[in-house]
Each structure stands twice: as C-alpha cells, then as structure tokens.
Amino acid sequence: MRRITFDLDVLRTFATGMDLGNFARAADRLGRSTSAVSAQLKKLEEQAGTPIFRKSGRGLALTEAGETMLAYARRLLDLNDEAVAAVQRVELEGWVRLGLQEDFGENLLPEVLGRFARAHPKVRIEARVVRNAELLERVTTGKLDLALAWSAGTLTAHCEHIADVPMRWIGPVNGLPAWAAGSGEPMPLASLEAPCLLRNAATKVLDEAGISWRLSFVSPSLGGLWAATAAGLGITVRTPIGLPAKVRMLAPGEAGLPELPDLGLVLHRAEAEPDAATSRLAELVLQSVHEAVRDISIPSDQEKALRRFG
Predict the structure, then answer these.
(1) Which part of the chain is the HTH lysR-type domain (predicted)?
(2) Predicted model pTM
(3) Which residues contact 218 (CB under 8 A, 6 or more apart)?
(4) Which terminus of the chain has a smaller tally of CB atoms within 10 A, N or C?
(5) How far apart are CA 49 and CA 189, in angstroms?
(6) What is the pLDDT of residues 147-159, one digit of tens each?
(7) Contact by Cβ (8 Å): 102, 219
(8) End-to-end CA distance of the chain
(9) Distance in angstroms (rounded) separating the CA atoms of residues 268 and 149
C-alpha cells in the first residue's frame, strides 16, 4: 500500500473553513484566493482517496470520511502548532490579562491556562471571570488584553466573531419545567442580575409571543442561577456551553415556550497587533472555544461553509 503524507497546509485550509463557517473567509484569513482554496480541497480528496463531500440539497455536506478527516486534521494541526510553539517560543516572557464570561470559567480556563503554562512558563497570566459589560469595559480601557464575551451586536475596535451559539430554555434535569403554557400563571424566569444579554433575549421573545412572565429568581452568579433552576424555582436561558449535570435543555416547543435566537461569541483584543505572548494565548483560546462549540453539535457553521463552497 502506498504511504500517504497529508499536506498540513491543506489540512489547515480545510479546518479553518469549517471553523469559520465560510471558505471565502478562510481564504481571507490564510491569504489565498478562493480558487486556490478550492484546489486545496480537491487535493485533499485526492490524497484521501475517498469523497470528503457529498451533495446535500443545493450545497454540500461532509461524508462520514469527511467527518473523520476533519477530526484528524484538527488533531494534527494542534500537535503541529504545539511543536512550533515549543521550539520557537520557549523564551516568551511577559504578562497577559485574560477575561472570560462565566460560562467558560470552569470548562475552558483550566485547559487553556494549563497548555499555555506548560509551553511558556515565564509568562504570567492574570485571569478574570466576570460579566459581559465589565469585560467590554476592561478591554476597551486597556485593563484586559483579551476578553471572550457574548455579543448581541456590540463590538470593540479589535475583535473577532467566533460563532453564533443557540440560546436554549433550561430546566431541572429531573421533573417537569416549573411552568407550562395554558397554566394561567406568568412564566417564572430565573435570571442573572441586569444587565444580562440572555435575560433581555428571553423577555423579548416572551413579550413577542404574548406570554406573561415574572422574575422568580435573580442571582449575581451563574452558580446561584444553576442551583435555583435545578431546584425548580424557575426556567432560565443559557447556551448549551458549560451546562452542569443538574439542569437540562428543554426540547423545542416544550412547555409551550417560543424559540430563542442565537447569541454571538466574540474574542476582543485591546490592541490591533498584540505582543507574542498575548497572540499565542489568543490562539489557544480560539482553539478551545472552537472545540467547545463543536461539542454542542451546532450544524449551522459546517452547513453554511459547505453550501458556500458548493
């Protein structure tokens, strides 16, 4: 059997296009023409020796081999990037200030900081887990170098849109939601303290659907919100990222609740051209976030990427 060595440059184009949800954006990111990207994807199929894409309506979708290829491409690229960082950036020094929204504090922060600290032990990191409004204020005033935050359209001077993540109604893992349409009672809404993007989205869709509601529980922290929701004190709104085991996403239409919109996820930078340590940490944050977004099974980005390619 002929030994095949996949081209990492081609794999990066493939993975970048899937992550960005658009191969045209991947071409811009990687400094290539769209025709060059198409040629690279054709080369990848030739190297694989099996179709990676299949027709799906007016566009394309990944075949089973394509899904497998994408998973391996990401692993190979992560290993390659770690090797480059290890041999070229071992002497990175300095101080990086990172801010995160609460949803990412427990499941993303330890993994990112661990990988970064192992590769760059001389860099000191200050991490702050706070609410969206404070993250944006701190990055715009230079008190943070990087900030990962939800967005309803508010952007900063140097930011990168990562994904649109679905919002979902959340209830207790055991038992029925605290309310159902037709009960004659206002819907009990558990929420974080204002200002809260998800609370605003929830009340807007409830008002538009003509469903009365009341604030049944207000918490200053995400931990308190999870506890109240698990106890059945109310129904809340979050994304599928970082959900604890004691709560669950309600099925579409469950309890007669209206559909919620998507929420933007954005990485903000204080500077247009950050230093090497900040840039490297930003790379690791983006990798981890893309993995988190993939894990919640959002098909839209991949579908849009493939349709635009097709």
Answers:
(1) 6-63
(2) 0.69
(3) 190, 191, 192, 193
(4) N
(5) 53
(6) 999 987 778 889 9
(7) no
(8) 32
(9) 8
